[in-house]
Amino acid sequence: MNVLAVLAPVSAVIALIFAYGLSSWIGKMDEGTDRMREISGYIREGAMAFLRREYKTMAVVILVLFLVLGFGIDWLTAVLYVFGALFSVLAGYCGMRVATKGNVRTASAAMSGGMNKALKVAFRSGAVMGLCVVGLGLLGIGGVFVLFGVESASVITGFGLGASSMALFGRVGGGIYTKAADVGADLVGKVEAGIPEDDPRNPAVIADNVGDNVGDVAGMGSDLFESYVGSIISAITLAVVMPSIKPTFGYEFDLPPLAGSVFPLVLSAIGIIASIIGIMCVRGNEKSNPAAALNAGTYISSAIVVVFSFVLSWVFFANFNCAIAIIAGLIVGIAIGKLTEFYTSGDYKHVKKISEQCQTGPATTIISGFGVGMLSTVWPIIMIAVGILVANAFAGLYGIALAAVGMLSTTGMVVAVDAYGPVSDNAGGIAEMSKLPKEVRMITDKLDAVGNTTAAIGKGFAIGSAALTALALFASYSQLAGLESISLLEPMVIAGLFIGAMLPFLFSALTMNSVGKAAYQMIEEVRRQFHCDAGIMEGTCKPDYARCVDISTKAALKEMMAPGLLAIIAPMAVGIIMGTEALGGMLAGALSSGVLVAIMMANAGGAWDNAKKYIEEGHFGGKGSESHKAAVVGDTVGDPFKDTAGPSINILIKLMTIVAVVFAPVFVAIGGLL
Amino acid sequence: MNVLAVLAPVSAVIALIFAYGLSSWIGKMDEGTDRMREISGYIREGAMAFLRREYKTMAVVILVLFLVLGFGIDWLTAVLYVFGALFSVLAGYCGMRVATKGNVRTASAAMSGGMNKALKVAFRSGAVMGLCVVGLGLLGIGGVFVLFGVESASVITGFGLGASSMALFGRVGGGIYTKAADVGADLVGKVEAGIPEDDPRNPAVIADNVGDNVGDVAGMGSDLFESYVGSIISAITLAVVMPSIKPTFGYEFDLPPLAGSVFPLVLSAIGIIASIIGIMCVRGNEKSNPAAALNAGTYISSAIVVVFSFVLSWVFFANFNCAIAIIAGLIVGIAIGKLTEFYTSGDYKHVKKISEQCQTGPATTIISGFGVGMLSTVWPIIMIAVGILVANAFAGLYGIALAAVGMLSTTGMVVAVDAYGPVSDNAGGIAEMSKLPKEVRMITDKLDAVGNTTAAIGKGFAIGSAALTALALFASYSQLAGLESISLLEPMVIAGLFIGAMLPFLFSALTMNSVGKAAYQMIEEVRRQFHCDAGIMEGTCKPDYARCVDISTKAALKEMMAPGLLAIIAPMAVGIIMGTEALGGMLAGALSSGVLVAIMMANAGGAWDNAKKYIEEGHFGGKGSESHKAAVVGDTVGDPFKDTAGPSINILIKLMTIVAVVFAPVFVAIGGLL
């Protein structure tokens, strides 16, 4: 059976080769006019410079944790930690490089070849990111497994820790960067100076476009890299500690460590192949809607995974229990995605209601959006609870991990769909700044809008898998810490639960505060430039783009440290001071409140965004009306909710759990100071 | 020892006699001019009419639950449930009657006797409410205990259920009433029509003043009635199930059911006497600040409780462990109160920072206030966690219950300080509407402002005691359900935890949505009146106050049902369908996320309110500036946060736990359908 594990690195390499092929194809596309080249050059340079500086800053954190792990746990874990971090960096770097090439080529394709060609270029740019994420992820885990066999279960968490810590810093840093630039560009440029979005006279316009890349492409890529890696690791570690599965439904079956570990690897290998097939199936058609093309790709790859999960489940365990757990995960993910759409799309009643409330001003806009965000937690949470119970009923805790693996097996496809949005968005920015014909912008806007809807499924997968993965890792933690029960009747556990539930609130407060501070600096700088040089507004002088890029970069790097370190230090402090049971309580508290805060923030933000768009379509007074102004307030409040704080919490809960897993032996040895 | 239990009803009767005395004293005060009488008559009528209709609506709920309890549990519990509900009604009714007499007399006293006399009248009006709450609460529990002895432990939870369910409906209904009227009066009157606060031309002005009474007086009173009763009940039920205490610190000691039950009763009896002494010590002095007088009363009564807790602890258990648990509770309560002040008062940096952010518009105002609300959860949660651990270390789970009892023993004094604020606020409204000299309004404003600060301690006690009481009831639940452990490693418990953590979000969404709907109707009506009758604005025609009162009343009664029933039905559904362990997980989830959401909402709302006031004092542009407009948006968003959703969550978590306690035998018998 061990030999099947080789499928993992093999399929990973196939993905990387395929990514390379797509990337070369994109490189050969036309870059358009000189002006387009120039602008996309600025964006690429800014984005790359940010990533380089971010990685340099991170190098210190990586080095410190490497030493802590080496001396505290063992050196193999420490080395794998570094590999996890490096692979995450590599995935983000390669993906973003291609995305920053793809944007200008998408604009050019829209100009010369119309919607279909533009879709192809944009989607393939996103697909490179998707394939890099899954290719590097499975290459890392699969490679380690092939080298060390089931023994790798005890050290592979190091790889996960590397991926998670980079993801958190990447998401937070990228999120702060993009929102500082966005708010700065919008508030001074659009609102105060009255110039349109992406106008080249706006000094923050390049920083804004750079932000889309470092936040929505690189940040999102490292986020899904860690989700992908985390779910597979959680399944492997559980397989090694659980001797057999006694399900409530179906037959009891053995779970040999080897078969249990190889199963998720092979499933992920098939997921990669399924993603490649899905990616190839996305081809526009002048008659059809681009959304249909993207959805077709997603459904095809999911269908392949479903079929093979039955086959594999039978081959490995002689029953279909594991397949049912996987399908439960897929259904939960899709359901959360659809629910997300229901609460955040302008086609449904909630967003329309928020738009209506915009008529009575910003206060009622905020209250109703906030209410929708809170209300939107109900069904996703019930779905997650049902998913947990079904997966557990058929395949125990291992089933819960498999549900997450199943959900994320088609990550290649999901990331492709997700990353294609910001590429199109950037293409629109380049078109605007290069003064291309209006039709070009219309095409990129259309592509972007479609991306927003299709990406809802991706969000559902991100949230659902985060909850399930964290839970599976939590189960591994309890095994490693030797806890047979973490009882809520122990005051220590309850104290931990309270502290854990508080952490997502503290974390959100820190990140939102950071966005506020960074945006404030950006606003000041843009105002200063407009004030000092009248030629900028007249269009006779070029604004100092670099300075705005620099402000965002510096602020993001400085501000990402506190929330990032909180996620690493909090579980260590609780584990050392309060002991392993309290840490269990803390993780459960952070998991439950974190998922809720994340859903609330993401959906409130999304709903405000689309309420604004709904009004811009001409409802309730349309653009420029008082309702629209209120809607802009809602959208601005929602920005850090949905693009900074919300998505980072998904990583936070997994990172804290993986820190607990890795350091469990240390906490057991200390035994709690209290 | 049993004989000491008699102290409870005796001191309760003393409190009620004292309340009667104060109430007669207030009745003899001068009511001022005819105009003042007329206006206060409207307010009193509106408030009383609302309460009567609310109680009539509630009668159906009470009847249904009475039958469910009678047939499902036993008839004694059912009868005590009705008594709990009736005593809660009585406390709210009597307190509010006096408050609606006190308001006009406070205004009159301010006119004739100055600050000191006004303080005396206002404070004594609040004190009647405080004494009614503790008097009726301890009369009920003490009476039951004297009649049935330790056997009462199994039925007294019925009394608590009655108090809790009335409190939730009262808080939610009152909260919706007051905020609908407030928002309606402000948005149309102040903002659109440009007339000042409490202007008699505003059709919603009477409804607004009625709202202060039904929300901030009656609602708050029933809230603290249930906290008070709930904490004592949790201590009694724990004492009966726990044979001995094995503390980490100090000696192990027996906990005989009788001594363990009588102890909290005697402690509360002393708390009542301490509150009466504290109330008598509040006497203004022309030279001193009224805040000093109020604080002196609070500190004196707390000091008496501290001294006697040592005496009682020694007399009952021959050690000081229980006293330490009580003091831990008191310290946590005071600390949370001080922290509340730090995050929500204009004297400290956070509110100043929000005010500064008002300069860049409503969006940054909302983001920063929201950030402050989230940040403000950190230290209170740590304090609660430490309080739990210290109380448990010295006196086990029983100690946690005692910490809550200790915190709430001076409830009489706390409610007096709390209720005095809205009385002063109302007095100001009457002064304005009766066109009394400006000095009168200045005095009532000063009294109101002082009340806001001193009330912070009360908020700390409300939140801290809610967490501790719910936890103690949770422990009783586990005993009654026969659960030795509620392990977070069970998927069923985790599913329950997720659902429980979601409930405060759903509950808040429902209540905020209700405020929005009710406010919308009010806005329409006020606009309609201004539009139809030009004489209203000219001051030649009297607006139709009754119609606005009617809208608030109807909306509040209709909208309070869904969130109220949710709190009763959710734990029953989870207990029946998912079983007792899942219900344990649900309660812990609701407790942890509920406390956080409650603190966040209360403090964000308070901070926005005071940021607005800070700007009105002349900072960052002062009244009428753009900053002020942004601050008004923040304040309007904060209103339903801090006065409707936030405080109701404290009751929600206790009500759900007490439902679980009462129905535990049913859930055990069913055994979970899943």
Quick summary:
By secondary structure, chain A is mainly alpha-helical.
How big a fraction of the residues of chain A is strand?
A: under 5%
Number of folding domains of chain A?
A: 1
Q: Which term fits the overall shape of chain A?
A: globular
Work out the oligomeric state of the chains in this entry.
homodimer
Strands of chain A, total number? 2
Largest interface: A-B, 78 and 78 residues
Secondary-structure element order of chain A, N to C: HHHHHHEEHHHHHHHHHHHHHH
Low-confidence region ranges of chain A: none
Q: What is the straight-line distance between the termini of chain A?
A: 47 Å
The total count of helices of chain A amounts to 20
Radius of gyration of chain A: 24 Å
Mean pLDDT of chain A: 91
Q: Estimate the helix proportion of chain A, in percent.
A: over 70%
Structural class of chain A, please? mainly alpha
Q: If strands are numbered along the chain, what order do they take across the biggest sheet of chain A?
A: 1-2
**Largest beta-sheet characterization of chain A:** 2 strands, antiparallel
